[in-house]
Amino acid sequence: MPPILAHLMTAPTEVAPIPSLDVWWSRHRDLARCFARPIEQALAAGFAADRLGYAFASGYQTALAQLLGERLALPTAFCVTEERDIATRLVEAEGSYHLSGAKSFVTLGGFAERLLVVASSGHDDRGRNRLRVVALDHPEGLTLEPVADLPFVPEIGHATVRFDALPVAPSQLLPGDGYADYVKPFRTIEDLHIHAAILGWLLRLSRKAWPEPITERLLAAALSIDALATHDPTSPAAHVALAGALQHSAHLIDELDPLWASLDDETQSRWRRDRDLLRVASGARAKRRDSAWRALSDT
Question: Residue 155 and which of 7, 16, 130, 298 are 20 to 30 A apart at CA?
């Protein structure tokens, strides 16, 4: 397998247009086979994206691959968000299970062929939700309702997904605790892999049209994220380091503003439309950073 550093600095900077999610998934899947680690797959697939939206989609898929510890055979969506706390229920009766409830905002919900659904299986002695994750491959028997396109990355659709006593086999339950083993670490894993894919995309543009010092700084940022991906995603120290890496990249991206004029009109227009994606979940990241600092000060 080629070293990711060499790939980012030697791969062709011209890429074929990606007209649809089907084409994106085919390209993403082929590239993912070429690199061992999901974070490397994110960097390479981001580099091969023709726009920010498809870089984001590749980061999201490689984050799920890292979470599950496997290569994804199908485009996958992690179904967590609800109107309030997790109310989707996984009910057991006589050795069988049924899933009921709704997820209000599922990324790639209309395209994904595998859904990872976080559901409550009841409450513990302290009244807290016991969460499990249900894996539904080629899901049938559920209701999909498209969510209106966001003002940025409209290529990446979202949907509300409803389950009405959907039968679930025991083999479809993922091992472990739904919160501690999946929801909590994914927040950090997702940030790492999506950011890696975005940096891969920016590196291709930089090699194509921007000054060499910009490429050097983007490459250094990408390798910083690559290194952070080797650490425990629940570690407070890793959260502090990630906060610093994301802040560094944000400053660098702001400095790129005058350079976009050197690219074609379509790329410039998409960037102006899509750059607000980078601010999504900034509040949650700030809370995670503050919590990490508090945890470190208590040790």
Answer: 7
Nearest to 55 by CA among 253, 256, 271: 271
Write down the H helix ranges in 113-183.
none
Q: What pLDDT was estimated at residue 2?
A: 63
User: With contact defined as beta carbons under 8 Å apart, do 204 and 15 qualify?
Assistant: yes
Q: Look at residue 253 and give its three-state secondary structure.
A: helix
Please say whether the beta carbons of 134 and 79 come within 8 A.
no
User: What is the structure's pLDDT at 298?
Assistant: 84
Q: Judge contact between 45 and 31, C-beta under 8 A.
A: yes
Go through the chain and tell me how many residues it has: 299
Confidence band for 128, pLDDT divided at 50, 70 and 90: confident
Tokens (6 digits) for 299: 């040790």
Give the model's pLDDT for residue 28.
Answer: 97
Q: What is the pLDDT of residues 243-278, one digit of tens each?
A: 999 999 999 999 999 999 999 999 999 999 999 999
Helices (H), the chain: 4-10, 21-32, 38-48, 52-68, 184-209, 212-228, 236-255, 265-274, 282-297
- Is residue 232 within 8 A of residue 255, CB to CB? The reply is no
Residue 281, helix vs strand vs coil: coil
> 245, 204, 249: which is closest to 224 by C-alpha?
245
* Residue 83 three-state SS: coil
Here the tokens at position 110 are: 């209309």
- Non-local (6+) Cβ contacts of 223 within 8 A are 5
Q: pLDDT by residue (tens digit) across 209-236?
A: 999 999 999 999 999 999 999 999 999 9
CB of 139 within 8 A of CB of 112? no
Residue 147, classed as helix, strand or coil, is strand
